[in-house]
Amino acid sequence: MSKIITIKVKEDLKISALKKGEVNRISVHLSDNALGVPWRLPVIVVRGNHRGPTLGITAAVHGDELNGISTIFKLLETIDPSHLKGNLVLVPISNVPGYLKNQRYFSDNVDLNRIMPGKPVGTTSQIYAHHFTQKIIKKFDYLLDLHTASHGRVNSLYLRADLDNEQTRTLAYLQSPQIIVKKYDEQGTLRSWANENGIPAITVEIGNPNAFQHNLIDETLDGVLNTMRHLKMIEGKVQDLITDAVVCDHSYWIYSKRGGIVDVFPGLTEQIRKGDVIAKVYDVFGQVKEEIVADRSGIVIGKNVRPNCESGTRILHIGVNIIAPEAEDIPGHD
Ligand SMILES: [Zn+2]
After folding, report:
1. How many domains does the structure of the chain reveal?
2. Buried-most residue among 184, 198, 217, 325 (CB within 10 A)?
3. Are residues 34 and 175 in the same domain?
């Protein structure tokens, strides 16, 4: 165990002022809580001795999505700062109030990942988002934003990335996912704002909320290290990790029409066929009210695991139109 040091609060993140060849731990003041004291954003900067890009990794933008925190901690234990080229900026808990309340949303119940880049004068969450993007994210050259499924659902290890853009496609193909979904940037997400501002960014969805799933965390870590090798931040040969991944043109949720007690059948990453019964909705007397059928063939990306559902509950997230990546687009492919 290393010595625990007290972390001081800083008003801004100034990477050039930090010690080279070391791990720097900083709390950055974003906005204030109701006690009038700063929300302290934990930021870990591994500053290399040599020149190179700044790779940012953010986790828990949704406060109950925790697998990214462990990914960051494991990465920190793997990297030797004296050999690093460039900077690694790690934000293990991006949504501090949400994390404290063990919830997806910010303290005002707003989804931070729908309001980026926030506003300097605005609502509670907008002000926090503004300082988060301006003080932290703006300083990155590349961004990996680590998420998980939402409360009541489970996910495979999958990526959302714009595969038509060469830089984000390369970032995506460097990872070690089970599934990639070609995704155009939705307005208000951190990924969208970063990409619009010249910071290639992808979203990595690592399994389930409220847990550490070490098999998926280790696969995510493999992808992060591969990215660092590709960016020449660390030594080593770039590997083709996506050989087994399924790449989908797009994805969508199948919803329930009726409410009641739902049982969802297919497992994660299972291939389903059009016409398969994917779930049954029961009434409270055990009678089947609805059989939910797949309207297309595809692969299961995520699913509902909370049995009590109202009409219009998200039941199954499927990826469709499976496409084969071009060999020349895959880094490390021989
Ligand atoms: Zn999320």
Report:
1. 2
2. 217
3. yes
- Distance (angstroms) between ligand 1 centre and the Cα of 289 equals 32
283 lies in the same domain as 138? no
How many angstroms is it from 242 CA to the middle of ligand 1? 22
Cα Rg of the chain, angstroms: 21
Give me the residue label for tokens 């714009």: 162
Q: Which of 147, 158, 145 has its CA nearest to residue 300?
A: 158
243 alpha carbon to ligand 1 midpoint, in Å?
26
Q: What is the whole-number distance in angstroms between the Cα of residue 65 and the centre of ligand 1?
A: 6
pLDDT, mean of residues 224-243:
96
82 with 46, same domain: the answer is yes
| 5 pLDDT more than 90 | no
CA 63 to centroid of ligand 1, rounded, Å: 8
Residue (of 180, 185, 188) closest to 205 by Cα position: 180
**CATH at 23:** 3.40.630.10
Q: How far is the CA of 262 from the centre of ligand 1 (A)?
A: 23
Same structural domain, 213 and 261? no
DSSP per residue, 295-319: SS-EEEEEEE--SEE-TT-EEEEEE
Q: Are residues 294 and 194 in the same domain?
A: no
Are the CB atoms for 181 and 122 separated by under 8 Å?
Answer: no
Domain limits for position 32: 9-230
Give per-residue pLDDT as tens, 103-139: 999 999 999 999 999 999 999 999 999 999 999 999 9
Ligand 1 centre distance from Cα of residue 62 (Å): 5
21 C-alpha to center of ligand 1: Å? 32
What is the structure's pLDDT at 297?
97
Q: Are residues 297 and 166 in the same domain?
A: no
* Section 57-80 average pLDDT: 98
Q: Residue 325 pLDDT > 80, yes or no?
A: yes
Does residue 226 share a domain with residue 287?
A: no
Tell me, yes or no, whether 281 lies in a domain: yes
pTM metric for this prediction: 0.96
**What residue has token string 């063990």?**
102
- Phi then psi for residue 26, to 5 deg, are -135, 145
User: Residue 266 belongs to a domain with what CATH number?
Assistant: 2.40.50.100
Per-residue pLDDT for 244 more than 90?
no
Cα-to-centroid distance, 215 and ligand 1 (Å): 19
